[in-house]
Design a protein that fits this description.
The protein is an all-alpha fold. The chain has one domain. A two-stranded antiparallel ribbon has the order 1-2. It has a two-stranded antiparallel ribbon with strand order 3-4. A hairpin with a 6-residue loop joins strand 3 and strand 4. Helix 3 packs parallel to helix 12. The radius of gyration is 21 Å and the shape is globular. The model has no long low-confidence stretch (mean pLDDT 80).
């Protein structure tokens, strides 16, 4: 019965993507920040509205939703608990995807991707990311179902990643030294200039083809998301191992990544404490994964809601601290 929900959800996502590329962004154009903010609000509204379906679906056990035990905390997810887990997963994945924007902005700058073509790269990048994350989620859920101790490996990985983010300063990276770029240029012919919105063009001989710089940028965006997924997938499994909640929260977080990029790309440097906030979020969900049983006994049945509020508080603190520091620096420059 649950297969009906999966088919319906995937059809809904494909419909959203078709409307996005085939109707609203059919022609290549540069997306301005005001338009991007409006679209970001639309995607966030859709993601949050889906929580209503999650509540009633799990509360009333539609099509077998919420009938199994969640391996993370050993409970059968009812409507309220499932909604708390979905929203927590959505917020965590959304916040981690913001960190991805830093790298995407650098890639677009290095490859000098024209503004009107950036949406096309991000669209196909998101489509590939959905497929990759879907496969990783299926594999992760299977591992956790068979070997519960894998959760503790995920938790240790999250904590180590958080500590690295907190105490390791990373300088700007040179994409030309990226191993993927070097492999592409070594084994595949790449054109020296853009050819509109095409990823592939004919080469000097009738049967030869060349990758365009746009295709190389797309491959790097996909590779970047795969690397970030290694962090974000264990983070969502710290909250729930219910495959439907994991996948849907990931999907809605990723779907709004493109518009969020265009909304925030010009303001990235203002959020200097965002990485610190994200590291603290990873620490929180990592420790939650390890001490889930103890936290439930201390905080009660609504401990997932408390975790959600904790994540929101950390992110809000990072944003406020960043804006305050930026304003203070601006005042100092003015003097």
């Amino acid at each position: 019965m649950m297969i009906t929900v999966w088919i319906g959800f995937l059809a809904f996502v494909l419909l959203l993507l078709a409307l996005d590329l085939g109707v609203f962004h059919r022609t290549a154009k540069e997306v301005h920040p005001k338009e991007a903010l409006a679209w970001s609000a639309v995607w966030i509204a859709i993601g949050l509205s889906f929580a209503v379906f999650v509540f009633f679906g799990y509360e009333n056990k539609w099509f077998g939703m919420g009938t199994g035990v969640d391996p993370v905390d050993g409970v059968v997810n009812g409507g309220a608990v499932a909604t708390e887990k979905y929203l927590t997963g959505y917020v965590v994945e959304k916040s981690l995807s913001i960190d991805n924007i830093f790298v995407i902005a650098m890639l677009f700058s290095f490859f000098a991707v024209p503004g009107r073509l950036q949406h096309r790269v991000l669209f196909w990048g998101v489509l590939g990311a959905l497929v990759m994350r879907g496969l990783m989620i299926v594999a992760g859920a299977r591992l956790i179902a068979e070997f519960h101790w894998v959760l503790y490996l995920f938790a240790a990985f999250l904590i180590l990643t958080a500590l690295k983010m907190l105490f390791t300063k990373e300088g700007p990276r040179d994409p030309s030294r990226n191993i993927v770029v070097r492999i592409i240029k070594r084994f595949l012919p790449v054109s020296s200039e853009y050819h509109g919105d095409r990823f592939l063009v004919r080469g000097p001989t009738p049967r030869s083809f060349l990758l365009t710089p746009l295709a190389v940028a797309l491959i790097l965006v996909e590779t970047t998301d795969l690397i970030f997924a290694v962090d974000s997938i264990p983070a969502i499994f710290a909250i729930t191992a219910d495959p439907f909640l994991v996948f849907t929260s990931n999907v809605f977080a990723i779907l709004g990544l493109r518009s969020l990029y265009f909304a925030l790309a010009g303001m990235i440097q203002k959020f200097r404490y965002l990485k610190t906030a994200l590291a603290l979020v990873l620490l929180l969900v990592g420790f939650k994964m390890i001490f889930a049983g103890w936290l439930k006994s201390v905080l009660g049945d609504r401990f997932n809601l408390i975790i959600l509020l904790g994540v929101l508080a950390i992110l809000a603190g990072g944003v406020v601290a960043s804006l305050y520091a930026d304003r203070k620096a601006g005042t100092a420059r003015g003097n």
